[in-house]
Design goal:
transferase; Rhodanese domain-containing protein; Thiosulf_sulfurTrfase; binds thiosulfate; 5 helices; two-stranded antiparallel sheet; alpha/beta; GlpE_sulfurtransferase
């Protein structure tokens, strides 16, 4: 079962700069607004991501509300990532709690 972190822990992790934030929402949502520095992960980018990302890299996975990110996290864990966690509340909670930590384009 996916490891989960609270939005507060997510914020601390973002501030520490030690984790890669992974956005599994649809690419259009990612393009519009995202957690600063987050990278989109889609079916199209998956093979590349798996081929180039260290299995020791800390990952914080988020979706809209914190549900599908848990399955994504389980998937990444099956693929060998040892430090993948799912962000509780997803981006929708995040943007309410930390509007100053949202990158928009
Ligand atoms: O993105 S979601 O699965 O939390 S609705």
């Amino acid at each position: 079962m996916a490891q989960r972190i609270s939005p507060e822990q997510g914020r601390e992790t973002l501030d520490s700069g030690e984790a890669l934030f992974i956005d599994v929402r649809d690419p259009g949502s990612h393009a519009m607004a995202r957690i600063p520095g987050a990278v989109p992960l889609t079916q199209d980018s998956l093979d590349d991501f798996l081929a180039t990302t260290s299995r020791d890299q800390a990952l914080v996975v988020y979706c809209y509300h914190g549900h599908s990110s848990q399955s994504a996290c389980d998937f990444l864990t099956e693929k060998g990532f040892t430090r993948a966690v799912s962000l509780d509340g997803g981006f929708e909670h995040w943007r309410q709690a930390y509007p100053d930590q949202v990158e928009e384009s």
